[in-house]
Amino acid sequence: MEYEKEGQGSFIYFFKYRDKSCCIDATNDIFHEVRMINDAENGDAKQSCVMKIVEVNQTPHLCTFADRDIAIGEEL
């Protein structure tokens, strides 16, 4: 990826919607919610949230839901 070539980290979230591959690139948007999500795998002890697609007016919205109690200051 270009970000790796430039030595820059990236904040990209990939998901499927209606059988299409989609992504949100929040690398250059420091206020985007995707930047706040840890990349823990499903079942990882660090995982505290799940991302779900909620459709509103045929538009996908990514929503974050806690799947356990989260301590103050803990990474999502």
TrEMBL record:
InterPro entries: KMT5A, SET_dom, SET_dom_sf
A GO cellular component annotation in the UniProt record: nucleus
Gene3D superfamilies reported for this sequence: SET domain
SUPFAM superfamilies for this protein: SET domain
Domain (SET): residue spans on this chain: 9-76
GO terms of biological process kind: regulation of DNA damage response, signal transduction by p53 class mediator; regulation of transcription by RNA polymerase II
GO MF annotations in UniProt: histone H4K20 methyltransferase activity
Protein name per Swiss-Prot or TrEMBL: SET domain-containing protein
